[in-house]
């Protein structure tokens, strides 16, 4: 690759329209929901009836603190995965860049594919960075595979999937289980590929890469198999303490993200305190369903799904929409904004470094 080409390619990847697209989708969907609900109730009256007291302020602060816990968990995990080679600041920057790419790419695709580039920009060799991102992918999927059955078993079905028996409730339930089974199968493949039988998976991927329909992606598929073999060699040498630490970071990250909704309900819907566990349990369902979202960062679908799925816990559709918007501001639009600030600076710094290394004038 010629000097500056990767930086230029990354600049293309982070075009302004990729930031504006999810924002536009989210605003359009919220606007349509607002127009639909405005026929049934007065939004102004709903907002006026919100009692702005200590609970509201506490829940907003708690929501941001929980997102800080989410960032702490992932930053800690990046530090542990790199054997403390990354400083806290560097690990946080990688976390922010990865989250930004998650915000501007479809949930079904994910933005972690660029994670190795971000790690490489912080001094981690590209092969090592690829190994680390495969490991983070495995850990995230493993968390869902372990946690979801536990949550479903200890939560009454009527509370987690609602007992209305309508088409929406059935759709959520069936979608959740289908996506969960896909995640479980993918996690097993990752386990086979990077820990148990990497040679088998490598040979399988090598055969798949030769299919005519997949000629366009043959090099990427074959490269993934090689990366899995390299990853396996390194991970098998890791002690139990390493796995415990990185999984704890993963669990803290995801759980903290889910608790944002609990905080919001505590402030805006105080009489639903008895349903706090069910509110948390439903977050597992929502995030599993959102994994197949075709929109960038789940924009649009997230707001609609939240307002519909939590509708039986919220007195009015207008209040449900307000909570959905606040939830997305804290968990999504904040990261979109931070990423829009950090990414141009990162690209400029990366581009300058490549130009210096190549001996070209900036």
Q: Helix-strand pattern, N to C?
A: HHHHHHHHHHHHHHH
Q: Compute the number of helices.
A: 15
Average pLDDT works out at 80
Characterize the largest beta sheet: strand count, sense, and whether it forms a barrel.
none
Between the first and last Cα atoms, what is the distance in angstroms? 18 Å
What is the tally of beta strands? 0
What Rg do the Cα atoms give?
22 Å
Instruction: Please identify the structural class as seen in this structure.
Output: mainly alpha
Query: Could you estimate the helical fraction of the residues in percent?
Result: over 70%
- Determine the strand fraction and express it as a percent band: under 5%
Overall outline: globular
The low-confidence runs, each spanning 5 or more residues with pLDDT under 50, are 1-8
């Amino acid at each position: 690759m010629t000097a500056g080409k990767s930086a230029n390619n990354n600049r293309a990847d982070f075009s302004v329209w990729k930031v504006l697209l999810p924002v536009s989708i989210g605003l359009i969907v919220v606007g349509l929901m607002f127009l639909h609900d405005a026929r049934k109730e007065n939004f102004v009256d709903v907002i006026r009836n919100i009692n702005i007291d200590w609970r509201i302020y506490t829940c907003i602060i708690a929501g941001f603190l929980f997102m800080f816990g989410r960032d702490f968990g992932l930053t800690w995990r990046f530090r542990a995965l790199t054997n403390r080679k990354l400083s806290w600041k560097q690990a946080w920057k990688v976390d922010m860049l990865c989250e930004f790419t998650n915000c501007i790419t479809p949930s079904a695709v994910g933005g972690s594919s660029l994670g190795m580039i971000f790690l490489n920009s912080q001094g981690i060799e590209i092969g090592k960075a690829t190994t680390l991102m495969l490991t983070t992918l495995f850990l995230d999927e493993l968390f869902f595979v372990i946690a979801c059955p536990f949550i479903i078993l200890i939560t009454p079905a009527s509370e987690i999937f609602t007992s209305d028996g309508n088409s929406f409730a059935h759709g959520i339930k069936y979608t959740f289980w289908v996506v969960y089974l896909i995640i479980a199968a993918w996690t097993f493949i990752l386990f086979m590929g990077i820990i148990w039988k990497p040679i088998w998976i490598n040979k399988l991927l090598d055969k798949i890469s030769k299919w005519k329909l997949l000629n366009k992606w043959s090099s990427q598929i074959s490269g993934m198999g090689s990366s899995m073999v390299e990853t396996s060699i390194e991970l098998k040498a890791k002690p139990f303490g390493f796995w415990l630490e990185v999984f704890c970071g993963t669990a803290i990250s995801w759980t903290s993200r889910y608790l944002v909704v609990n905080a919001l309900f505590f402030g805006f819907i105080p009489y639903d305190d008895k349903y706090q566990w069910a509110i948390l349990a439903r977050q597992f369902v929502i995030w599993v369903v959102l994994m197949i979202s075709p929109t960038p960062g789940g924009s649009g679908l997230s707001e609609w799904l939240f307002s519909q799925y939590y509708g039986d816990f919220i007195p009015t559709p207008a209040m449900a929409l307000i909570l959905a918007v606040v939830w997305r501001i804290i968990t999504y639009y904040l990261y979109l904004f931070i990423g829009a600030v950090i990414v141009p600076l990162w690209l400029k710094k990366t581009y300058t470094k490549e130009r210096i290394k190549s001996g070209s004038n900036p």
